[in-house]
Amino acid sequence: MRHDHLLSAGQLTRGDIEAVLDRAADLADDPGAVGERHADRLLALCFFEPSTRTKMSFDTAMKRLGGDTVDMGPVESSSVKKGESLADTVRVIEGYADGIVLRHPSEGAAKLASQFVDVPVVNAGDGAGQHPSQTLLDLYTMRERAGLDDLTVGIMGDLKYGRTVHSLASALTNFDARMHFISPESLRLPHGVQFDLHDAGARLREHTDLDDVLSELDVLYVTRIQRERFPDENEYQQVAGEYQIDAGTLERARDDLTVMHPLPRVDEIAPDVDATDHAAYFAQAHNGVPVRMALLDELLGGDAATDGGAGR
Ligand code: ASP
Fold this sequence. Notes:
It comes from Halobaculum gomorrense. The protein is α/β, with parallel strands linked by helices. The protein has helices at 14-29, 53-64, 86-93, 109-114, 132-146, 163-172, 191-199, 233-239, 247-250, 281-286, 288-300; strands at 42-47, 68-71, 99-104, 121-126, 152-156, 178-182, 203-207, 219-222, 258-260.
């Protein structure tokens, strides 16, 4: 992968993705395989929005690589509260660290940040935009469970505001997956995302009813309705709880259906699914560590010839 930053899934070729997933598989087997080269490296964690998995797995990944992290901490206790711009914040932080993982409520924030710094920036979620490192661990999980060739994937829930959906759909075009998007009318994929998918030759169909396609699916990727992104709470209440699955729903699915979810779940997947062979979402979250180790190893650079903040 020859990129300075990871900003959106659209920048990743099939070759890029496979290289990270292969490396992640190696690191999952042997975390020490990277040797000492990250020992003096620091990764800055800048989260302007809540996070459990993304932040903790980047933190764990960096430490497992032998490096360390510095955390901007909660926005409330940072100088952002005093009115500092994102550009100034990241310009300062690049002096402290070899890479920046950024989550921000504004779409395009990571791209903007990347224009002000020389160290690699990873977009860890920019509003309803993109979440490409999540996509890498999603694909890793799909590859482990179902392989990435000839896949039929259902993506259900909040397709409008769900950034993991936008990134995943974009990356799946590299594998020529058949994609079924299942959502209420008001949470359909945004036109811009659909346009890009069509442009990339995606095979996609939209549905309002899961039962239209459930029996065809290899993977069902369930998402949370992104309550925090609704301009109006009433709009959220109209769709809340509409798309839920339980063990009974899955009786109508293939035995080998894999159910995934980027988490956190609210009520989209009933707890009775957890004990079934379909459930992959906790393993999926755990895969975040080896996948982010592989990604950081690549972006931070193993030697002077690699892009990014190597040698800082
Ligand atoms: N954790 C994922 C994200 O940050 C999914 C979600 O919040 O629903 O986008």
